[in-house]
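Re: that chain you flagged

S.,

Sorry for the slow reply, it's been a week of failed gels. I finally had a moment to sit down with the sequence you sent. For the record, here it is as I used it:
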Amino acid sequence: MPNRLIEIFEDEQLIDKIKRRLPYLFQLAELESSRAGKTGMEVGSLRERIIVALLIYKFGEANVETEIPITEREIDAKLFGEPLSIKTITGKSFSGVKLIWTVDAQKAKEFRKEYYPHCDILLIQINWDNLGGFYYIPLEIQKRLFDKIGRRNYIKLPKAGTNPRGVEITKEALSTLVKDSGSKYIEIHWRKVRIDFNPYKRWVDLWRED
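Prediction finished late last night. Pasting the structure tokens below so you have them in one place:
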């Protein structure tokens, strides 16, 4: 069965909605996870939920599996039974995208030794006040590049003595993947709008209920 994710990139109405709504929804996620003007780590989980909600909106709740065991380190959801990884990156550069989150240097080395691409990727490049994108990188394209350049050119280990919290896909590998003719892309202009946001209002309203 051909991967159904491709349908997102063939649906003109949905493409238009993604271009309009995704910056607003990601801005809300930032506001919800901010304290004293600083965005917290939990913004990643909120962004992931927004993308999973998009999949449910497009394909229906019955076809999107969200209860993924924590042992499935890279898989964030399953669409029609097929595993999917959702990744976000901020800025112009394609560096810093994590394959696994760990602070253990030995686990990082073991991961690089054992890793092989095993699921499709949806990558969202956030670039406020500029152009970014919504990318689909099919599994076969990842495998092809991995086989071509090898794991040491595909995977970047954290530097010894630092605390970067994860193993990354190299900037060069990711840049190559998004430019591949088999990958899909929706260009997004990341504009912020004025939002009157009160992080406590929803909870206060719930306290007011009988």
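What I noticed first: Residues 12-32 form the longest helix (21 residues).

Talk soon,
D.
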